[in-house]
Specification:
The chain is an alpha/beta fold. Helix content is 25%, strand content 31%. It is built from nine helices and 22 strands. The strands form four sheets. The chain has a seven-stranded mixed beta sheet. The relative contact order is 0.10.
Length: 459
């Protein structure tokens, strides 16, 4: 079939029926032989769109006018919707969000991994769809007058920050804290780090809020320089907000725009907060990883434990174990859990958390997952189950290879990316394993992100 693409031009207006949602949150439609991705469009919208970009067999477009709105379209709660890079689905009914996330996991496994009928359960919906995040990372920038602002990045603009009025992802308290800090920085005329000049002071503001304990940490990420003004601000914050237990400063002198420092100073309170998941307490420091949705994180840990089915005589291996979140749930019924984590600070936090909870049958080892698996295979170590919870990039090819060599009876794969999950499951299930169940878990309402917990058994 000959493509009719040459008749279409950039800037051309077309009328389209939006058919579904693509992974990434954009509406999907067809125009002649082209797949068209439309920003901010929803399934069953009838809309006029402007074509903005062409690929080999696709086009990108933006909404011009909605002729007939989708029955699932709702008014977004946030005034920054459309400008902010987050919450792309805040204009879509939550029940439909969950359905589309389930479909996207299923379709990834069908189209990318070749499972004809993948055993995907309906996604586990979040009880709280607003104010659910326990961590928010804001950026400092300057307005047209050069005064400090605190906000989030504009859609698709990594160097542009808008001045935040209110965000509905963390809490009203965090909104009040952000506004108080912004006022103080303006009063004190504190400088903002300039990406091009590599000069200035304020870089990021990170707020961590333990949802089950109520404790709050405020973390200022700055360039080098005199931080005495932040010491004054820290005391004000502690006095004004009883829930704030920790105010720290992380100093990042690198050009990389990351909210992590080479050096940390405690400005007020302690250098950690405590969160509770199930029966366990967790120390959360400024730079340690913790699942961003405490409520759903507990459900995720319970699912991983249910799928692994640890017994009193079994040893479980937990790869990418982080601060021990899943490990502790597994350790209750198991003989022993060995956690493997590459970040030394995270391993230190995991060991502290084990001591905090008087857990004696968990060991945490600093190692790359692929290296530990290679050694475990050489030593012919035996594990009843192996848990893997990799980053968005999925499993390193050597991890897959060495996991198959290790040949545990069960693998529990916790994923935050359906695409890399499909790639890895295809490799694991080609010969050795059978995919028994996939349970998506919605950790991030109003975004297209979805976690999944999968159970694999030896064929």
């Amino acid at each position: 079939m000959t493509s009719s693409r040459p008749t279409l031009k950039k800037g051309e207006i077309s009328e389209l029926e939006i058919e579904s949602l693509a992974f990434g949150g954009q509406g999907l439609a067809h125009l002649d032989n082209l797949v068209v991705f439309v920003k901010q469009a929803l399934p069953q919208d009838r809309a006029r769109v402007k074509l903005t970009k062409f690929g080999a067999n696709f086009a990108e477009a933006e909404l011009v006018e909605i002729i007939h709105p989708s029955p699932w379209r709702i008014p977004p709660r946030c005034s920054h919707f459309g400008v902010c890079g987050g919450c792309k689905w805040q204009n879509l009914k939550y029940t439909q969000q969950v359905e589309y996330k389930t479909s996207q996991v299923r379709e990834s496994l069908q189209h990318l991994a070749g499972f004809s009928e993948p055993p995907v359960r309906p996604a586990l919906a979040a009880e709280s769809t607003f104010f659910y995040r326990n961590k928010m990372e804001y950026s400092f920038s300057a307005d047209e007058k050069g005064e400090p602002i605190i906000g989030l990045h504009k859609t698709g603009k990594f160097d542009q920050v808008f001045d935040l009025e209110a965000c509905y992802l963390q809490s009203e308290t965090s909104n009040q804290v952000v506004n108080r800090i912004k006022s103080f920085c303006r009063e004190m005329s504190l400088s903002v780090y300039d990406l091009r000049q590599h000069a200035g002071f304020l870089r990021f503001l990170v707020i961590k809020e333990a949802k089950n304990s109520g404790e709050v940490m405020v973390n200022f990420v700055t360039h080098q320089g005199d931080g005495s003004a932040l010491g004054i601000l820290a005391k004000e914050l502690i006095n004004s907000f009883p829930s704030i237990n920790s105010v720290v400063r992380n100093i990042n002198t690198q050009r990389a725009q990351i909210a992590v420092g080479e050096k940390e100073e405690v400005l007020a309170g302690r250098n950690y907060i405590l969160e509770k998941l199930g029966p366990f307490q967790f120390r959360i420091s400024a730079n340690s990883f913790f699942q961003s949705n405490s409520q759903q994180a507990e459900n995720l840990c319970l699912l991983a434990t249910e799928f692994a089915q640890p017994q009193p005589d079994q040893v479980i291996l937990d790869l990418y174990s982080g601060t021990g979140t899943i490990s502790f749930f597994l350790a209750q019924p198991a003989k022993e859990v060995i956690g493997v984590e590459s970040n030394p600070h995270t391993v230190e936090d995991a060991n502290k958390n084990a001591a905090l909870n008087s857990i004696t049958n968990c060991r945490f080892i600093r190692s790359e997952a692929k290296d530990y698996l290679a050694l475990a295979s050489l030593r012919r170590e035996k594990f009843a189950s192996v848990i893997v919870d990799p980053p968005r990039s999925g499993l390193h090819p050597k991890v897959v290879e060495n996991l198959i060599k290790l040949s545990p009876p069960k693998i529990v794969y916790v994923s935050c990316n359906p695409t890399t999950l499909a790639r890895d499951l295809k490799l694991l299930c080609e010969r050795e394993y059978r995919l028994e169940v996939v349970q998506p878990v919605d950790m991030f309402p109003h975004t297209y992100h979805i976690e999944s917990v999968c159970k694999l058994s030896k064929k």
